[in-house]
From TrEMBL:
Keywords: Membrane, Transmembrane, Transmembrane helix. The chain crosses the membrane at residues 26-42. Pfam families: DUF5670 (PF18919). This is Fatty acid desaturase. It comes from Arthrobacter bambusae.
Amino acid sequence: MLLWIAIVIAVLWLLGFIGNIGGGLIHLLLVVAVIVLIFHFIRGRSRV
């Protein structure tokens, strides 16, 4: 689930970066996506 959230945030960031929309919010989304990915890999896969 965290991986999907990170992917969605990264895609939104790319769309905003290409369209120059959002300014600082775009970079905040990228930071959140990276943090979610790091948390996902540290936590490992669960069988839920």
